[in-house]
Specification:
Strand order of the largest sheet: 2-8-7-4-5
Largest sheet: 5 strands, mixed
Shape: flat
Radius of gyration: 48 Å
Structural class: alpha+beta
Order of helices and strands: HHHHHHHHHHHHHHHEEEEEEEEHHHHH
Distance between the termini: 120 Å
Helix content: 40-55%
Strand content: 5-15%
Length: about 525
């Protein structure tokens, strides 16, 4: 009705005018009029009170700043009455049909998988067919027979391509299973290891990528099964198969094929002439540009080779056998083998990057298996640890029980790399075992342990034994004090003799009348001493 800059008389006049219209006394049963009168009163106060007016001009509210409120604007059709039935129907459809269907679908898919991401059917298959004689040549077919591989679709158009591929692929062993999907997948895996990707159609290449992506989880489960059963050589063969898949190497291929721009022709060229065939050790012995036989290569290729050489893992193994809190190892002890693996190609603070694997469809990082075995052809497994850290220094611990006779012992510690061929390490672990009788072992009891022994157990606290123990200890103290206050037998006999002598002396002075009394005192002291001894 008035402007905020109006005079006080204009404001009062407008307030009085509106009050006559909207005052509750004149609108007894009209809540709208009462609400309007409250707004009029609030506006009058805002224009007449200096503090309220300042708040209104600054914050838009005479009461001062208010808490920010955030609301969600709903579409208008959600609030319309004629749409209520449709909205409720959609709500119940989502809540009672869609969400349960998604949950059931997810559960149906995940219930077939183990915690390591491998199908349970694959684990059952591997546990049944894996054995101690499994070697690298058998593993492509085992991977092709996994449930993940058998789920891939078959196409009639692939028949001609697979017939041609079968003529080119060299299968290392006679197939064990003749199921069409297993035969096809086995050919795809061998074609990958022999680098025959150009013979595959785009559809077959997609199938091969799916097999390779699931191969790391499947082969990991195979390694764990072999080690759990103590099959060291079978587990080592599976690790070799993993790196063959990562680097696309065949069973008898040279490890030099991992190097960029190396092929069979270049390796044959390097093998010519006198001297032993080149190896990875030869390749890493000095800068690539100085290697005999590589000077004629393109400078850019030499740079790629040198970058690969700098990226390759060069590890050292250190191991120590100890018994915690002891200086010597005794037969029957539980010994701890502390293993340290150092990547000497890295500097402090650096970590290993992705594996150079141009034929593998996804990113791969180094994984190592640290295996402790007894020396000899049997190679009994004593412990194994999987190392996935990419740091420069990796540490792990294994535990074993020391058995056998005392003396000098030697164990073999091996490190298997699952990403690069030719970089496995093996060191000897030597330690001495002594007899338990000759070991000087001091038992140290800490004060904290002694205090714990004095504390009552929970059962004693519940049954009140601790309070009884306190009462008994008090009774024992009183008995001890009484026994200390009570004279011994010798003291009482000596005192009786002294009384006898003093009595005789008194009798001489007073006559024979006191002698019977002295005799009676002596007899009483003797009887008291005898009863005390009893």
């Amino acid at each position: 009705e008035v402007d905020s800059s109006a005079s006080a008389s204009d404001i009062k006049r407008a307030y009085r005018k509106l009050s006559l219209v909207y005052h509750p006394d004149k609108n007894a049963n009209d809540p709208a009029a009462a609400a309007k009168f409250i707004e009029i009163t609030k506006a009058y106060n805002a224009l007449t009170d200096p503090v309220a007016k300042a708040n209104y001009e600054k914050f838009g509210n005479p009461d001062g700043p208010e808490t920010t409120k955030v609301g969600i604007g709903l579409p208008k059709f959600l609030l319309e009455k004629e749409n209520n039935l449709l909205i409720l129907s959609c709500f119940f459809l989502v809540l009672l049909v869609l969400i349960p269907s998604v949950a059931i679908y997810y559960w149906q898919r995940t219930k077939n998988y183990a915690s390591n991401g491998v199908l349970i059917e694959t684990l059952q298959f591997m546990e049944h067919f894996l054995n101690e004689t499994i070697r690298l040549k058998n593993l492509p077919e085992y991977l092709a027979a996994s449930a993940e591989s058998r789920q891939l679709p078959t196409r009639l158009d692939d028949q001609a391509v697979m017939t041609k591929l079968k003529k080119e692929v060299q299968e290392p062993v006679k197939p064990k299973w003749q199921h069409p999907i297993i035969v096809r997948n086995s050919l795809l895996v061998n074609a990958h290891m022999q680098r025959l990707h150009e013979l595959l159609t785009p559809e077959l290449q997609e199938d091969l990528e799916l097999i390779l992506k699931s191969s790391m989880r499947i082969t990991q489960a195979m390694v764990e099964i072999c080690l759990a059963r103590g099959w060291v050589f079978s587990a080592q063969s599976v690790v070799e198969f993993r790196r063959c898949l990562v680097q696309a190497l065949d069973i008898k291929d040279s490890p030099l094929l991992q190097i960029p721009h190396f092929d069979e022709d270049l390796i044959r060229q390097l093998n010519r002439g006198k001297g032993s065939p080149p190896t990875l050790k030869w390749f890493l012995s000095k800068p690539v540009a100085e290697q005999k036989g590589l000077q004629s290569q393109d400078p850019q290729k030499l740079l790629d080779m040198q970058a690969f050489a700098d990226h390759l893992p060069q590890v050292e193994l250190e191991a120590e056998v100890v018994v915690e809190d002891e200086n010597e190892i005794v037969v029957g002890d539980i010994a701890t083998i502390k293993v340290k693996m150092i990547r000497t190609n890295l500097k402090e603070g650096e970590a290993a990057g992705r594996v150079h694997a141009p034929f593998f469809p996804e990113a791969k990082f180094e994984e190592w298996w640290i295996v402790l075995t007894e020396p000899g052809t049997t190679g009994r497994l004593l412990g194994a640890e999987r190392v996935r850290h990419t740091d420069r220094v990796c540490e792990c611990k294994m535990m074993m029980q020391v058995t056998g006779k005392p003396g000098r012992r030697k164990l073999e510690l091996q490190a298997w790399c699952d990403s690069y061929a030719g970089f496995d390490k093996k060191v000897d672990v030597n330690f001495t075992v002594v007899q338990a009788t000759s070991a000087n072992r001091e038992i140290i009891v800490h004060k904290e342990d002694e205090d714990l022994d004095l504390m009552p157990t929970l059962f004693q606290q519940l049954m009140g034994d601790f309070g009884q123990m306190d009462e008994e200890s008090e009774d024992e103290k009183e008995a001890a004090a009484a026994s200390e206050a009570k004279p011994s037998r010798k003291e009482r006999v000596a005192k009786a003799k002294e009384n006898k002598k003093s009595g005789k002396a008194a009798a001489k002075e007073s006559g024979d009348e006191s002698e019977p009394e002295t005799k009676q005192e002596e007899d009483a002291a003797s009887s008291s001493a005898s009863s005390d001894s009893e």
